[in-house]
Specification:
- This protein is of the alpha/beta class.
- It is built from ten helices and ten strands.
- Strand 1, helix 5 and strand 2 form a beta-alpha-beta unit.
- The N and C termini lie far apart (about 150 Å).
- Responsible for the synthesis of complex-type N-linked oligosaccharides in many glycoproteins as well as the carbohydrate moieties of glycolipids.
Length: about 400
């Protein structure tokens, strides 16, 4: 009876009429909660449908991209490998034939080749320098040994640092004749020094053909021109005698704002500069400085005088000589007897006094020679030249 009465009391709660407060309020609360849950369920269902639609769209988009990628790959790679001449039916039976050109530029490759890494500039003060060196000329020095000691040097005596970009390209020029013994020692010491100095360089041995009087300065002019023929990027030129070896690798073989004199303290002069205007042994000029003085004189046949003429040319052109510290610019000379056909030039003192008159007509612009052979050796480039004979009478001026 009690249950029936409770059910009857709850029946009017559908519209919540009547004066009964307790049961009617409970039934209203239940209806309110039921409606709220129904709305929440609908919202969750809509969110699930939206998420599903987004997932389907993304899936088909990624699938389309993968399909396109593999289609391009299969069209470019395997198709070409299996049918290398598919684009030209007329040449299929001729394996060495060239397909006819359509006249249109070829499309650029979709995958460019690897680019060379950009190297940093070489430091002004190379970190691997040793400083003072022990130089001796008593041990045998075969060229094979020198070659083994310098595996990074390319044919012709060319070298480029692998870890940095030098600011200059240096041509080292050696006037030469009958000094093979000295050249081996020079290469033995100088290649490691130049590599430690982080230089991009090439070695040029300019060999005077024949037995006529030696002409050092003219050979240097020849070396300047021939080096530029091989590599027009040379912008620094070091002119070195083959019997002089630096005793300190901090004596950097570079060119600067002024012409450079490197060999300022030779052992044969007691490691002192013999006189203020001395410019012999080893010197360096950049390209513009060399052309500004019209190169070196061609008329100094025999020993002596050309260095002082070059010094005069530099002074007359308004430039000054730069030199390293005397403790760094020390050199050892390989002892030897005076070469045959290189006797002292008796006209040298007169010529030195006339540099102002001769420098414009005698120099790089007037040099005449004939190249007989260019031979690129593992450690240097040999240039054999015929530079003619000295005149039988002194030239005017």
């Amino acid at each position: 009876v009690t249950l029936v009465q409770e059910q009857r009391l709850c029946l009017p709660a559908a519209g919540c009429p009547g004066p009964l407060g307790g049961p009617v309020a409970a039934c209203g609360m239940s209806r309110l909660l039921g409606g709220t849950l129904e709305r929440v369920c609908k919202a969750v269902l809509l969110l699930c449908l939206l998420h599903f639609l987004v997932a389907v769209i993304l899936y088909f988009d990624v699938y389309a991209q993968h399909l396109a990628f593999f289609s391009r790959f299969s069209a470019r790679g395997p198709a070409r490998a299996l049918h290398p001449a598919a684009s030209s039916s007329t040449n299929c039976s001729r394996p060495n034939a060239t397909a006819p050109s359509s006249g249109l530029p070829e499309a650029p490759s979709a995958r460019p080749g690897p680019t060379a890494p950009v190297l940093p500039p070489c430091p002004d003060s190379p970190p691997g320098l040793v400083g003072r060196l022990l130089i001796e000329f008593t041990s045998p020095m075969p060229l094979e040994r020198v070659q083994r000691e310098n595996p990074g040097v390319l044919l012709g005596g060319r070298y480029t640092p692998p870890d940095c970009t030098p600011a200059q390209t240096v041509a080292v020029i050696i006037p030469f004749r009958h000094r093979e013994h000295h050249l081996r020692y020079w290469l033995h010491y100088l290649h490691p020094i130049l590599r430690r100095q982080r230089l991009r360089y090439g070695i040029y041995v300019v060999n005077q053909h024949g037995e006529d009087t030696f002409n050092r300065a003219k050979l240097l002019n020849v070396g300047f021109l021939e080096a530029l023929k091989e590599d027009a990027t040379y912008n620094c030129f070091i002119f070195s005698d083959v019997d002089l070896v630096p005793m300190d690798d901090r004596n950097l073989y570079r060119c600067g704002d002024q012409p450079r004199h490197f060999a300022i303290a030779m052992d044969k002069f007691g490691f002192r500069l013999p006189y203020a205007g001395y410019f012999g042994g080893v010197s360096g000029l950049n390209k513009s400085q060399f052309l500004r003085i019209n190169g070196f004189p061609n008329e100094y046949w025999g020993w002596g005088g050309e260095d002082d003429d070059i010094f005069n040319r530099i002074s007359l052109a308004g430039m000054k000589i730069s030199r390293p510290d005397i403790r760094i610019g020390r050199y050892r000379m390989i002892k030897h007897d005076r070469d045959k056909h290189n006797e002292p030039n008796p006209q040298r003192f007169t010529k030195i006094q006339n540099t102002k008159l001769t420098m414009k007509r005698d120099g790089i612009g007037s040099v005449r020679y004939q190249v007989l052979e260019v031979s690129r050796q593992p450690l240097f480039t040999n240039i054999t030249v015929d530079i003619g004979r000295p005149p039988s009478w002194p030239p005017r001026g």
